[in-house]
Amino acid sequence: MKGVGKAQRSGMWGALFSLGSGMLLICLLILFTSDNPADTLRSFFLGPWSSPWFIGNTLDMVALLLVSALGVAVAFRGGTFNLGGEGQIYIGGLGATVVLLSFPSLSGTVALLLAALVSLVLGAFMGGLSGLLKRFARADELITSFLFSAALTPVADYLIAGPLRDKSGSLLASPRFATTRILPHLLPPSSLSVSLLWAIALVFLVFILMNRTESGYRFRVAGASPEFARFGGFPAPAYWGYAMTASGALHGLAGFFAVAGTYGLCHQGFSGGLGWSGIAVALIGRNEPLALFPAALMFAWLKAGSDGALLASGLQFETSAFVQAIILLLVTVRFVPRLGRSL
Amino acid sequence: MMHTLLIASVPLLLAGLGALVSDLSGYLAVFLEGAMALGAFLVWVFSVWSGSLLTGFLASLGIAGLVGWLLSRFIRWTGANPFVTALAVNLAALGITETVSVILYNTKGVLRDPRFPGVNGNLFVWLAFLLVLLAYGVIYHTPLGLRLRASGRSAEVLLQRGIDPVRYRDGAWAVAAMLAALAGGIVTVKVGAYAPGGTTGQGWIALVMVYLGFRRVWGVALAAIVFTFIERLGIEAQAFISIPSTILLGLPSLLALLLYILSQLLRKE
């Protein structure tokens, strides 16, 4: 037990270190580039919580991050690494869009349920394929999931800019869904919808399945220690398929929540960066479902804050890539190098 | 025909060679995508700035090599996860190229400049050929290459001889990053302008070349040429079957995926 506690403390350390460094980097960028650093810093830290509208948008980001990070965490815990999240979110959202724009005879609730199911199945298929390929073809799921996602993304780009496009608008986007086919919003006119409640429920569901059931125990052991699992009579490769399928399904659902909740339509590249942010959040939370709550909250704060600060100062930086990069770079750090030691 | 094919396959061949070197050290460099993007951008910036392609390439390769080396050292110093940390480079490259482009040129779009020097494509074919020869010689016929291969395949042997196998990753990642940056720079030179996202996906496809080439130097070179050939066929086929050009952008990734699965199925162990 002592060892576990220690591992978790050093894990916490990496998480705090990466978040702190991310915050510091953004602050430095602001200080060096803004004409009015004090105001920009204020909008960075307080902007995301400054009005119901901003709070709603930040919490909506938390919801999307929770679902995609949960997908990443499930894959990690099962001993796999899902790098195709970006495409699974995109294709999942696209599938949901097709459902929400067709079948006019269905009621709103049924259409939404069907859309959620379709996005879930599409994501599960994309992830599951990589899991099965890892098991039966010894193909690295890191590479197959990424390539599968990269191969399908242009197809989605084409469908959104072509057949599905709302010809009357200037955006590369689908028409807006009927009001009955958009998830109920909680803090209108912000983008926050009931997807936050669903996201929280999903996190608890995965937590219970993974930590309070026997198959969940086997799943975790197979992922953490394949040798031990083999001697225990449940070989790890059998769990790779489940891990990647569940991971893909959750990413697909994240796509559904984005189009049916956040945007109310599907625009080209709507998933932009959500998959990578999910990886960052999952790693900050050490792939522990319940730890994803603070991780997603902090990440959303950082992201919304930097977006707002840059908007306020009129600068055009690609902050999300920087925030993701600095967190991925530092989040798995296990110890600080002792300076002066011969390296 | 053969000639254009060779010129077209040079970037993939070089990046694939980089991927192979990293793989031999036991740690596949998943940052090649970022290193290629960085190389494509930096070669443009430095070449326009200095007026010389050679200076542009040398500066870019120097920076990329430093990034690969530092990354590997950083992982050793901090015990961080090599894959996750390497992914950070891909995202950082995206942010850095875009931000610097906005600061220097006020645009996120395509960069054109009449001062950007051009060069005959044959030069790159010869360069690639020489580098393949060099890689072959170093990897299979020098003690350094032997130890590099041992560091990935049987690290215990090196440990017993008092050599830290992980140290070989430092050099391997530096070389991999430099080769990828060279590949990215060549893409820019061939286009004659810097196009953001012009190398998207190629770093990942380069990783696949390691498997398609069965982890051999000549295998990777041949795999890159064959891959480029099939890719061209697919694009030519557009004249007969009407596939929207946007969808065709996914073709290289799909092809790499299928060939990768096939090569893994054929591999005996």
Question: Can you describe this structure?
Answer:
- The complex is a heterodimer of chains A (343) and B (269).
- By secondary structure, chain A is mostly helical.
- Chain A has one domain: Orthogonal Bundle (ABC transporter involved in vitamin B12 uptake, BtuC), CATH 1.10.3470.
- In chain A, 71% of the residues lie in helices and 0% in strands.
- Chain A has 13 helices and no strands.
- Chain A has helices at residues 2-33, 37-45, 52-77, 85-101, 108-137, 141-161, 195-211, 214-224, 226-231, 237-263, 274-284, 292-313, 319-331.
- Chain A is globular and about 65 Å long.
- Chain A starts with a helix and ends in a 12-residue tail after the last helix.
- Mean pLDDT of chain A is 87; it is low at 1-8 and 339-343.
- Chain B has one domain.
- Chain B is 76% helix and 0% strand.
- In chain B, helix 1 (2-24) crosses helix 9 and helix 2 (32-50) packs across helix 9 (202-212).
- Chain B is globular.
- At the A-B interface, helix 6, helix 11 and helix 13 of A face helix 3, helix 4, helix 9, helix 11 and helix 12 of B.
- Chain B: It is a multi-pass membrane protein.
